[in-house]
What does this fold into?
Amino acid sequence: MAKSATLTLIGDKELLAAFGTLKDTIRSSTMTVGLKRAAEPIISSARDNLRARAGYNPYRAYGRKAGNLWMSIGVRIRNYRNTDTKIAVIGPKWPQGAHGHLVEFGTLPRWTQTKGFFNQLRHGLKGAYRGIMPAKPFLRPAFDSRVGEALVILTTFVRNRIMRARLTGKK
It folds into this structure.
């Protein structure tokens, strides 16, 4: 289930009016850059949570690079067309982190499908048992522990951009 944090600009009426009078491009780029910067602590915490798992090493031996899930954690900014709403989606990117939901939420007992009479005799009608994968959450704890810091980063960034636009006279 997705978790969310909402930021509503409340405060100085002049500051809110200044944000409303900015050009759409400046306002949009301010929120995009602010959301990306605010997502950085959550991403680093999620990567640390993955690294803290027992035996997890993003670079394995034999010169083969591993850790696709660790490297794929990132942020993607989504826009709602008819409003000024922007959201930051933090999580593993596809295809490197396509198995991220399995690590985060785990799985139930699984069996592979068997085809053919002799395979059904060997493995049974359900197929070969593949086991249970226990949940090892890395994103939820990262979000819960760093959401306050992310909101502070976002509010200070937006406040500084508005003040800079007011001083330079870009409207």
